[in-house]
Structure formats: structure tokens, C-alpha cells
Amino acid sequence: MSRWCKNIAVLLIVSLALGACSRVGLAYRNLDVIIPWTLGDYLDMNGEQKSWFNERLREHLSWHCSTQLPGYLDWLDRLQVMVETNQVTDAALQARTLEAKKAIAETAQEITPSAIELLQGLDDKQVAEMNDAFAKDQRKREQEYLKPPLAQQIAERSERMQKRLNDWLGPLSKTQQQRVVNWSTALGDQNTQWIANRVHWQKQFSAAVAQRKSAEFPQRIETLLVNRESLWTADYQKAYADTEAQARSLFVDLMAESTPEQRQRLLKKIEGVRKDFNDLKCLKAAKQS
User: Which residue among 64, 127, 207, 252 is least packed, with the fewest CB closer than 10 Å?
Assistant: First the structure.
């Protein structure tokens, strides 16, 4: 997480409703990016591994489409009703978030055996390249998110959120713009905890892969992929809970201040997400079977 296009968002409700990914259909066609199996970003697979990977990916896509997508459509229905009836409350958002987390966990559980098999087949050179890629990713994120002064980090976070909101709600009022600024300010140096925890997780992942021939390896990888929150640092667990609460509060306040035109635009966007799902050939085939 928080986001389907690159990492699972802090809050899936924000990802879908506020547009971290503008075309969910496109994201679905790249399921290897939106599920917790992003090894393709860090591994240079050989031809045999790529063929195996693509075959497994097709199988996971078929499973995901037939068993998970119908639930996503129901989830969108509940989201739409919340907006239509002006019931965007903290409790409702918490419920939608728990549902989203459950769906993410089910998908992670499904693909974990394939991830284990792939990792067990890596040679030492590939593992070294993966670790180098992790280090490169860390340096890039530190440069982008930690090197700027805190005031700049806060301003850039606010600008990113306002851009997403403008796409999904239309132009924000002055009051709404200030609420976004206040939200970003309240998060403070959240980037520090986020990146520190990311490094912490990657180190545990690398340590597990170094012992990929051991009997404990499958369970270790399952924990890293399915129950990753249990391995987070104590500081990040606290920061993550606060970030979720801040995101819910922001969305509740923005919707309370929203105009009829903004709500209509949001509903249209949600309907567009629904159409992207319904237009997928695999879902049509699943409905006919």
C-alpha cells in the first residue's frame, strides 16, 4: 500500500475516491504492480523465470477476476451510497478501509506461494542485484522525500493531494484548500517514519531471501507479504495509525464542505471506476459462466 498503481495506499478509500490511479482497468491489467508482489521492479529474471512468472500471473489474474472483482463492485456500491446520502463519516470510512484491507490480504495470501517459489529459484547474482536495487530505491526516495526541508516536504505533500482532489472533486474552495494544508502540516515528518520502516522491511526481506533454502523460508515470506504490519517498527505502527486517522478526517471535512457540483463529479468518477471493472473481459466471462 497507499496506492494501487505503485504501492498500497495508506487508505484504499483515498486511492479510489481521490484518484491515485485514474484508470483502475489499467491498474488491474498490471496486477503484478498493485498486489504485494513487486519483485519485477527489483529482479532481472531470465527467460525461463519470465515465462513461469507470466503464466502464474495469468492464473492469478483469472482467480482475482472471478473471485475478487465482484466484491470490489459491491464495495463501490457502498462508497457511492455514502456520497449520495451524505453519510461520509469516520465510522463509515473505517468500515470501508477494513473491507479493503481484507481484500488486499486475501490477494496477498493467494500469490504468496508463487512468490516463494520464484524467490527460492533465484541465484546468488540475482539476489545481489535485488539488494542493490533496494539500496538504489532507498537513495532515490530519501533524495525526493527526506532531503528537502520539512516545510518543503509539507508543501509538496499538500500540492500532490490538492492535484488529486482537483481531478476527483473539481476546483477546491479556499476553505477546502486550507484544510488540505492543515492535513499535510499535521502529518509533519511522516516521510521519515515511512522510509525508515520501508528500509526496515526490505532488510528483513533480504535476510529471509539469503536463507531461501531453509525450511523456515516459506513461513518467513508469508509473514513478510501477508502479515507485514506485524513486522513494522513501533514508531511506524503509531505513525501509520495516525496517518489513517488524518486521512479519514480530511475526507470527512472535505465532503462536509463540498458543493453539489463536487459531489456529482465524485459520483461520476466512481461510476467510471465501476465501468472500468465491468468492461474487463475476464469479468464478463465470469458473469456468463
Answer: 207
